[in-house]
Amino acid sequence: RILEIRRIDDRTFTLINDRVEYRYNLLALTPLPAHVERAPFEADPERYKNETRYVTAPDTPGLYNGPYRVTGVTAGAALTLERNPHWPGEAPVFERIVIRAITNTAALEANLRSGGIDYIAGELGLSIDQATALERRMRGRYRFSYRPGLIYEHIDVNLDHPALKDVRVRQALLFGANREAVSQALFGGRQPVAHASVAPNDPAAAKDIQRYPYDLKRAAALLDDAGWPLDAKGQRRNAAGDPLAFDFMTTAGNRLRELAQQALQSDWAKLGISVNLRNQPARVFFGETVTKRKFNGLAMYAWLSSPESPPRTSLHSSMIPTADNGWSGQNYPGYSNAEVDGLLDKIEVELDQTKRTALWARLQQIYALELPALPFYFRAQPFVIPLWLTGIEPTGHQYPTTLWVEEWRDSRK
User: Which DSSP string corresponds to 210-230?
Assistant: First the structure.
């Protein structure tokens, strides 16, 4: 949305945007070091993203202006950071930090026990069940922090499905899903049930929205009202005799998602609904099925967001992927609501915090009533921190704890 860049002098320029958004001054641009990066850019601008020194030689001096700089890279294995002598801020305590990539959980725990690693970051570390199991074995040696975040696990509903396009059916599915029991059984209650797409710890979160506690009677009444009564065998059927049935998909091999799927399948079977579990490898699920809206029913996955981030790409009607638009956009349910479109447009340009909060509240109220997706839970990030390491404050959103690495301390010194 940048229309023009006007150069004023060697250190000053003006950006001309097509609109004033409320986040216009939230994040600053990151300048690139011209003495390092100009040559690969001018050689071939189209290939710059592949030829930048950040990719081809990430340990080149001059690429970084933070408290640490990259001094060594072992592809797929490790990254070495050392103090940046040119950093103008508070000097970090640790001279060197080595970040290791360990994809196997058993190897990760073995390295922790042996001292091969000191700390497991929550952003890309253990799942909740792995962390709770590790905590039982290593309690007292490490501090375990479970920070509920903005990672929104949800179930997209394909609104082209003849049964699921009825909001009463979608509401019945949520009333009929014992999400609290799933959270307790799989995550020890550490991952709170979601009531809308905005997390409770997000400044934009609204409190006055429709909620769906586990209630089979209310779910059954909604299905009856929608024209799906039970037959003699306990199967929901419409007037034409068609069963209430659909596919439920997620990423194959994700054990927690597959267990959650089975629990919901069992819950909905109590209502007389037939649910076919059909999972795919992530590359197919995300690369083809979800992005081209080929799922015949439900699709479970997660969104990662930053605080007060408008869900334009996933809710605005202009963002429904189609063959005509090259399958662009992330409105995979195919949701279209003129009021929601208007709210998303207004939220982006409303500079008054109070007015913007009211717009957010209305957006969440509509979402919770119409359920273009079924809210499931907000994922928590488990951090495994040695008792001597202080200053790590999990954020709960997409910006990692390492942004404040100069505040980390070693209490043994």
Answer: ------HHHHHHHHHHTT--B
Give, as one character, the DSSP assignment of residue 115: T
Q: Which domain holds residue 392?
A: 2-147+381-410
Residues 187 and 136: their CA atoms lie apart, in Å, by 14
What DSSP assignment string belongs to 32-73?
A: --HHHHHHHHHH-GGGHHHHSHHHH-TT-TTS--SSEEEEEE
Say if residue 254 is exposed, middle or buried (CB neighbours under 10 Å; 0-12, 13-18, 19+): middle
Question: At 91, which amino acid appears?
Answer: A
Which of 80-84, 191-195, 218-222 has the weakest average pLDDT? 191-195
Q: Which pLDDT score is estimated for 27?
A: 67
- The span from the CA of 266 to the CA of 260, in Å, is 10
Note the pTM of the prediction, 2 decimals.
Answer: 0.83
Pair 119, 131 in one domain: yes
Sole residue written with tokens 């189609």: 322
Q: At 308, which CATH number? A: 3.10.105.10
Indicate if 343 and 389 belong to the same structural domain.
no
Q: In terms of pLDDT, which residue wins out, 268 or 27?
A: 268
What is the model's pLDDT at position 337? 98
Count: domains in the chain: 2
Give the span between the Cα atoms of 167 and 337, in whole angstroms: 13
For 15-24, the pLDDT digits (tens) are 898 888 888 8
pLDDT digits (tens, 9 = 90+) for 29-60: 788 999 999 999 999 999 999 999 999 999 99
- CA 293/CA 179 separation, integer angstroms: 25
Rounded to 5°, the CA angle 347-150-131 comes to 180
Residue 107: exposure state from Cβ atoms within 10 A (0-12, 13-18, ≥19): exposed
Confidence of residue 378 (pLDDT cuts 50, 70, 90): very high
